[in-house]
Amino acid sequence: MFAGDSPSFEASQFLLAALDQARDAVAIIDHQGMVVRFNAAAERMWGMPAAEILGRDAACLGLDLSQRHDRTTPSAPADGTEVRADRNREITVRRKDGSLAKGALSLSRVEVGGAVNTMMFVRDITAEVNRRERLALMSMVADRTNRAVVVTDRNLRILYTNAAFAGILGYSPAEARGQRAIRLVAGRYTDRRTLARLRRLAETDDGGEEDILAYAKNGDEVWISTTINGVRDEQGRIKYLFALLTDIGETRQLRSLQQLILGALADELPLAEIATQLCRRVEILAPDVVCSVLHVDDAGLIHPLGGPSLPEDYSSALDGVAIGPEVGSCGSAAFHGKAVLATDIDADPRWQPYKTRPLDVGLRACWSTPITAKDGRVIGTFAFYFRECRGPSPWHQRIVDACVQLSALAIERKEARSQIARLAYRDTLTGLPNRLKFRELVDEMIAKCPSGNRIALLFLDLDHFKDVNDTLGHSAGDELLVALADCLRSQIGENDLLARLGGDEFVVVLPNCDAAGGSRVACRINQALSRLRLRTRSMPMSTSIGISIYPDNASTVDALMQQADAAMYEAKKVGRSTHRLFSADMNRLAEQRLSLGASLREAIANDALKLFYQPQIRIEDGALHGLEALARWYDPVLGEVSPAKFIPLAEDCGLIEQIGQWSIREACRQMSVWARAGVAVPCVSINLSPRNFQNPGLAAFVIENIQNSGLSPEQVVLEITESVFMNERSTAIATMKAIRELGVGLSLDDFGTGYSSLSRLTQLPIRELKIDRSFMRDIEGDPSALAIATAVVRVGQGLKMTVVAEGVETRGQYRLAAALGCDVVQGFLFAPALSAEALERWLVGYAADRAGAMLRHLRKSLARPPAAVPNLNPKDEGKVSLSSLGS
Fold first, then answer.
1. Which residue of 32, 453, 595, 659 is most buried, as measured by CB atoms within 10 A?
2. Segment 267-285 mean pLDDT
3. So what's the pLDDT on residue 522?
C-alpha cells in the first residue's frame, strides 16, 4: 500500500496494527478512492463488517470527503511524505440497520512517493450530541414559558434562572446566579413566615405552593405564586431546589378585589362596610400602604367611607370638609379631578392645616385619586398613605386602577341603572364597544352617511392567538388583547369606530372611506402590530383583515359583516398577515350559511324540530320540580345539528322568534298529552329569545296555547336572559309584566354572568333564578365560582325567588348546591335532556327509586331512636341513587 524501503514498510504495518486497536473509527482510502483499511471501531460505527467495505469506493460510507484542506503541516517529513489534515467537523453516519450516529470527523492526507492516501478518523459523539441537544431543548422550553424558573442549591443559592425570571423580577441570569434567592426577591413587607413555610414544604416529597409579595430589581412590588420542589441525590438528601414563579398580581389578586365588592353588592351590605372591606383587602395586597375611601356629595363635601387603619379622630375630622385646591391630597384631587401626590406631607402647603394627626401616627406621604361617575362628576377619592416620603409603584397603580372602578360601582348603587347600561355596551377587558353597541353605532353611521359617500368596514381576526394562550397562558392573552386594542386605537382617527366582538375578533369602521382607504388602514395596522410590545417584551403580531364597503357591497350591518368575514377567511387562506377586499366570488361561505338557514326554515315549517326535556329536582324532598324544554334539530342530510350552531343562525336569519313560538305550542301540547296519560309533570320551562319579548302579542299567544291545551298558567314557565331587559325597552318590560299577571312564571336564566341583573331584579316580575352552569362546573375547585354562586343564592333568597342550580354533574356539586340553599337542581347527575318517550321511562324508574328510598328510610327509622329525617334525593338511571346522595 505504501511505497518505500523495508524498514518503512514494517513501520507502516506496525502503525496499521495499532490503528486497528484504536477506540476511534479509522478508515484508510487509497489514491484511487478505495477503502483499504477499516478498523473494528469503524465496523461498530457503521454497523458493517470490514469485509463488506474493503475494496469498495469510499462513497459507500455515505460521506462527502472532497472538501478542500484547511491546513497543511508546516514541513514535510524527511522521507519525502507530506501530511495535510482537515479540521474536525460533525457528521451523521447512517448505519446498515438504518439507525443514525453522530461523529467528529477529521481527515489526514498522506502523500508518499506522489500517491495521496486519505486517513479518516471518526470519534463517536452520539451520546454527547444527544445530551447537548436535550439540554438546548430544555433551555429553549424554559425560556419560552411565561413562568419564571429558578434552580438553587440546598442553601438557596441560585444556579439557574430563565428568561421569564428576568421579565418578572428584572434580574438577568448573570445577575441572579450565585445570589441567595430570598435575599434577591424578598423585601420589607415580604411575609417571612410564608418563606419559612415554603422552605419546609420543599423538604417534603410533594413540595408546596404559596403566594408571596416579592420585590423586583427596580424595587417594584410583585405578587407571585411560588411552587417549590426538592431534588434529592442518591442518598435521599436535598441537593437542588426547583421553583416556578407566576406573576399573579393582575389576575388572582386583583380578581379577589372584584369578587369582594361584587359579593358585597349582592349581599346588599352598607356602603361603609363595603369600603372598609375593600381597604382591609388592599392593605393585605400592599402592606406598605394605609388605604382610605372618601365620598364626595353633590355639595362638594367630604364624608369618610372606609379607612380602618387611620386614626378614628382624624377620619371624623374630615367629615363635612369642603373640597378645594389646598385641601390636602384628597380634597385637591376631588377639586381638580385628577390624582394628587404629596411625597412629603410635612412640607406640602396643601397639607398644613391637616398634617398633625397623620404625622403623629407615622404617615409621611399621600397619593389620592378621584373616583368619578359616568357623567364625569367626582363622587369620591381613593387614597394611599405611605410611611415614607415616596410615590406609588406600578403595583400600587394597578391596585388603584382596580379599586377606583370598584369604589365607583359601590358608590353609584343608587345610579346602578346607568352604570349597568354602560357595562352592557362595553367589552370589560378592553373598554371597547361590544357587539351590541357596535351594531347600534354602525346603524347610526349608515343612517347619517351622505349620498355618494362610502363606509369601510374592516373585520380583524388576530393570527395564531390560540398559540399565545396555550404557550404563555390566558393572562398573557388578555394582556395582549388590551395591548392590541391600544395599538388599533392609535392607527385610526377620532371619528372612526373600533369595537371588540369577542375573543380575538375586532372591527374597525371608517366613515367617508373607500376601498383604497380601507386597504391603507389595514396595511398600517399590520405594520404597527409587527412592532407590538407587552411591557418590556417584544410581541410582534399580525391580523387577517377582511374589508367590505357600504354601499358598494351591501347596505346593512349584517350583510357588511358577513362579507367582511368572508374576505377575512380569504386573507387567512393566502397566508395571514394581510387583508382582502370582498368580491362576489367570496359569497360561497355566505351561500352555505344561506343554505343552512333555508334548511332550518324548512325544518320549522315541517315541524322537524323536536323538544327534549331535562328534569329539575327539588332538593328539599327529591320530588320532580319540573322540566326544561330544549330544542333539538336532526336534519336528514346534515345529521344532528348542535343548538350552539342553529340557535345563533336562527338569530341571524330572523327565525328565532318562530322557534320560540313553536316551542310554546309544542311544550303545551306535550304537557296536555302527559296530563291525559296520567304522567304527573308539575311545570315546564320554555326558553325564549329577547326578540320574543319585543312582540306585544306574546302574552296573548302564551295564554291562548295554555288554554287550548287545558293547562293552568302555573304549569308554564318562560325562561329569559338578562339581555331581555338590559336595554330597558318599554315593550319588553311591559310584555314581561303582562305575562306574569296571567300567572305564567318567569325564570331568569344564566344569572351571575353579568352585572345588570342586580339593579333590575327588584323591579321585575321574576319568580325563579337560575345559577349559570359555568359556576356550578367550577364550584368544587374554584373559590371564585363558589363565592359568586353563594351571592346568587343569597340574592334569590332575599327576593323570595326559587333558586335553580344548572349543570349539576357530580355528587360534590349537588351537595354544595344543597348546602348553599339552592331549591332545585338540574343536570347530567340526574338525567340529560330526553325525548318525551325516554322521559316517561325515566319518570317511572325515578318514582320507583324514590319510593324505595323512602321505604328504606322508614325501616331504618323504626329500628333506631327517632332522628331528623334526611333529605331524599333523586337519581339518574345507572348513575346515582337516592341513598348515596342522602348521606
1. 659
2. 89
3. 94
Distances (CA, A) of 640 to 634, 637, 667: 4, 9, 21
Q: Out of 400-404, 583-587, 600-604, 767-771, which region has the weakest mean confidence (pLDDT)?
A: 583-587
Amino acid at 588: R
Q: Distance between alpha carbon 374 and the CA centroid of its chain, in Å?
A: 28
Q: How confident is the model at residue 515 (pLDDT cuts 50, 70, 90)?
A: very high
Three state DSSP letters for 167-233: HHHCCCHHHHCCCEHHHHHCCCCCCHHHHHHHHHHHCCCCCEEEEEEEECCCCCEEEEEEEEEEEEC
More confident residue, 141 or 68: 141
pLDDT the model gives residue 458: 96
DSSP-assigned letters across all residues of 631-671: EEEEETTTEEEPHHHHHHHHHHHT-HHHHHHHHHHHHHHHH
* pTM (predicted TM-score): 0.40
**Can you tell me which residue has the cell 325563579?**
768
Q: How far apart are CA 27 and CA 696, in angstroms?
A: 96
Q: Are 426 and 433 in contact (CB under 8 A)?
A: yes
Strands (E), 772-853: 802-805, 824-825
Distance of alpha carbon 495 from alpha carbon 668, whole angstroms: 51
Closest CA to 410 of 253, 281, 295: 295
Among residues 273, 275, 266, the alpha carbon closest in space to that of 416 is found at 266
Tell me what pLDDT residue 881 has.
41
Q: Contact at 8 Å (CB) between 371 and 360?
A: no
What does the angle CA 390 – CA 393 – CA 399 come to, to the nearest 5 degrees?
A: 120
Residues in the chain: 887
How far is CA 320 from each of CA 137, 297, 331, 408, rounded to the nearest angstrom? 65, 10, 11, 20
The one-letter code for the residue type at 493 is G
The residue with greater pLDDT, 858 or 145, is 145
Q: Which domains does the chain have, with CATH numbers?
A: 6-125 (3.30.450.20), 145-247 (3.30.450.20), 255-422 (3.30.450.40), 426-582 (3.30.70.270), 599-838 (3.20.20.450), 844-886 (no CATH)
**Cα–Cα distance for residue pair 611/283, rounded to 1 Å:** 54
- Tell me: pLDDT of 630 over 90: yes
Angle at 89 between CA 87 and CA 93, to 5 degrees: 140
Distance of alpha carbon 31 from alpha carbon 309, whole angstroms: 93
Whether 874 shows a pLDDT value over 50: the answer reads no
Q: Per DSSP, which regions of 328-479 are E strands?
A: 340-342, 365-372, 378-386, 455-462
